[in-house]
């Protein structure tokens, strides 16, 4: 679909923005200066969640019509909630281009004249154009590189386990195993001036290879203007173990014609605003952040290929809608700004773009309350990231969040995932990060990972709706406290991320 068609479709959705309607939710009287917690309805969260995480949304992959469909749905719900459009040109949308590079389908690879099927027997680990016709040299170990000249030849060997294995139980463990092994082995081989590097999958890599293969097939995504990260060195390929005997033959030869396709797709942030009640403070914004995209259609698991992303991140998408309804019914002193970011799963692209191109004055953003995955795991536990050094950039904001939890929701707060030594590096994997890097007070609400993370099993039926309701209220109550405070939360002068 051409970009102009997407703009026209979005414009049609946004055209009704001038006619605001109420959400229709009933709420009991709220004491002055108190958040309208009762306005956040479990039933409304359930209804929204089951719509957004349904198979009809097809996983909402960034750069696809499915992501646009989800964004249009979010914008329409925001309009119905009474939120003002706060995107570009008086709409709820902020479009931005993303660049995708992938290996072209008409690329060809053959070993000793016998074709090898791309994405079934051979996987390019990054999109790299190359024409290769060269002999294959089989290595039994990296030490063999010292015994022969490999310049212009194809190096083949078994994928070696990384020296530092991923931590036990780490998310996407097999993918991290393969990524670490590839990085370690190719770094050791890159100075050999080889024409290509073929690494034969070991039993660990092949144990759960569907997701890994799909990642390689999809290629890379960047914001337009990012430095071109296409690898110009020798192409690196993962090869199915069944092809190892052919590569070990004395006269083995690789013939490859690898082509690359490049596309520019539109992705989009959805941006809405609920004005504050104070004539002066309403010029400032408490920003509630989440992402509306997920992984789309991918490798089949137990007969299901739709990665619905109910927890990641439909849970927060619908939570922000609920907070918006509450804010319009009972406005805080400062205004609430809602940004549903696009293309988060492709590398925080939507939040990076918004920080660089905010639709409000950047200085008016007093705090960012980001959420990612808030509907699973033990019902009485939750996590707050950005709560301890080196990730904490605003002690004042963290204290507001902790006080709101103590007053309203009483979760047992886990900060262990916020430690710099935690193997998941979870702090660096969600949309608060670009805001924190820009010096804006930012925290990250989450109920942490689970075995269904980035699988088709992340379905709406698995969400703990009561917990989702409590997490939504915690985010809302924290934002309310920020809104009501006479002084905006300050950044810690010594805050500095470790990477």
From TrEMBL:
Signal peptide range: 1-17
Domain of life from the UniProt record: Bacteria
GO MF entry, a single one: metalloexopeptidase activity
One of the protein's GO biological processes: proteolysis
Record domain Peptidase M28: where: 269-476
Record flagged with keyword Cell membrane: no
Classification via InterPro entries: M28_fam (IPR045175), Peptidase_M28 (IPR007484)
Keyword terms, alphabetized: Signal
Name of the protein in question: Peptidase M28
Organism: Pontibacter diazotrophicus
